[in-house]
Specification:
By secondary structure, the protein is of the alpha/beta class. It has three domains: 147 residues, Nitrogenase molybdenum iron protein domain (Rossmann fold), CATH 3.40.50; 190 residues, Nitrogenase molybdenum iron protein domain (Rossmann fold); 37 residues, no CATH class. It contains 17 helices and 14 strands. A six-stranded parallel β-sheet has the order 1-11-10-9-12-13. The radius of gyration is 25 Å and the shape is globular. It starts with a strand and ends with a helix.
């Protein structure tokens, strides 16, 4: 099933940490051409791309009210209940991230504060295709709404029948979102960045996707559109000990592998005895999955790593910096304290990564491809920009002003100095 590498030396770690990638020149050229077509031809290019990439014949891009109403009626009642539970937990977790305005008097008469202001227009990309991720809409639209974003625009690819998945439309309806467009892939990112007749240009783009979507986000970011992060193909690392239930471990690996053929899964362990048990469970469970061929392909990018010390194992995981990290060990809490690079961590035998994907409350839009070394997952703050303010009284400037004058003069920026000096002279004369 998955290849096993025993006791890898540190010089091998860079190679082991590499994620699967499309040949970069080819990928970038293809995405640049898509962006160029959207820029020059707008909606007509998007309709043409829907036919080419999604095999969908559509005449208009925006989802109609009738389509939304039809979807709301068609979604199973039990799924609706599940969505409401997930939405409630996600809202609770992200609401707790709201912070009061904190004003600081740095010295007498000098007041400074920082205020979070919502990004006005945000674009949300929801992957569709074989796995329509309505859960991603919950993860992104709920904090956007809590932050107070005035306009939320959603793009997601249509199915070959020209429709959007009903659960996506129901979720959007529940969240009060009506601007939904039948556009997928790199062309959706281009439309949100550039703007077309139908789709408004946004200030920041959110949402995961394949390598084409990720590359498009990187390119439009270079052209001035903010993005959440270059969140690409999904990945998980599982740390498991000799006490771990092999069926749990295998299920967690498969849950991530079924995302896409370019996904990557890792099992990291100190137990040689666990490995054949997990391999056997993988063989059994894989055959039960409708997406088994996708998962099987993902295993080509994946491996099981056996280490001979806990320190080496943890050092490797921190070097890998996984999007998702499951620690299925008896000492999971102690190990978690040693993790410094991960998007989201799942502790203990009964905390599957799927819980975070859907309904525990944390956000599942997370940094991939080692970006967890420097980036965080989506939070309420992702939808805010923070502006600093300051107010200085006359007495405050009398105290602070000479400090500024001296520093400005030392940097030979006399205009800076004069802006203080002129105030001090008038304040003194009065």
């Amino acid at each position: 099933m998955m290849k096993v590498i025993e006791y890898p030396e540190k010089k091998e770690w860079d190679t082991l940490c590499k994620r699967p990638q499309i040949e970069l020149d080819s990928l970038e050229n293809s995405v640049k051409e898509i962006i160029s077509q959207v820029k020059t031809r707008g909606d007509s290019a998007l309709i043409e791309f829907a036919q080419r990439f999604d095999k969908a014949s559509i005449s208009t891009l925006e989802v109609t009210k009738d389509e939304i109403d039809e979807a709301v009626q068609s979604v199973d009642k039990e799924l609706k209940k599940a969505l409401l539970v997930a939405a409630s937990n996600i809202k609770k977790f992200h609401s707790a991230q709201q912070r009061p305005l904190l004003e600081v008097e740095t010295m007498p008469g000098v007041y400074c504060w920082r205020k979070g202001v919502a990004i006005e227009r945000v674009g949300i990309y929801i992957p569709g295709g074989s796995a329509p991720l309505f859960s991603t809409l919950l993860m992104l639209a709920i904090p956007a709404t809590l932050a107070g974003c005035k306009e939320i625009v959603v793009c997601t690819p249509p199915s070959p029948n020209g429709k959007i998945n009903a659960a996506i439309l129901y979720t959007a309806h529940q969240l009060g979102i009506s601007k939904i467009y039948k556009v997928g892939g790199a062309q959706a990112i281009a439309a949100l960045s550039i703007g077309t007749k139908s789709i408004a240009k946004v200030n920041k783009i959110f949402g995961p996707g394949n390598q084409y979507v990720t590359k498009a986000k990187q390119l439009v970011n270079q052209q001035g559109t903010a993005i959440d992060m270059p969140a690409g193909p999904s990945e998980v690392a599982v740390i498991a000990d000799e006490l771990a239930d092999a069926s749990f471990v295998a299920a967690d690996l498969l849950a991530q592998a079924e995302h896409g053929s370019d996904s990557q899964v890792m099992l990291v362990t100190l137990s040689k005895q666990l490995i054949p048990k997990v391999q056997q469970e993988l063989s059994i469970q894989l055959e039960k999955l409708p997406r088994k061929e996708i998962a099987r392909k993902a295993f080509e990018n994946s491996c099981i790593l056996l280490f001979d010390s806990e320190n080496k194992m943890i050092d490797f995981v921190n070097e890998y910096a996984p999007e998702h990290l499951i620690i299925n060990t008896a000492n999971c809490d102690q190990l978690s304290d040693k993790i410094i690079n991960a998007g989201s961590v799942f502790l203990g035998a009964y905390t599957p990564e799927s819980a975070g994907d859907y309904a525990s409350g944390t956000n599942h839009t997370l940094p991939t491809n080692g970006q967890a070394k420097a980036c965080s997952g989506i939070s309420l703050d992702s939808f805010l920009k923070f502006i600093t303010y300051q107010k200085i009284t006359k007495n405050g400037l009398n105290t602070l002003g000479p400090v500024v004058e001296l520093m400005a003069q030392a940097e030979e920026l006399m205009g800076h100095k004069e802006s203080v000096t002129i105030r001090l002279s008038k304040a003194t004369n009065k």
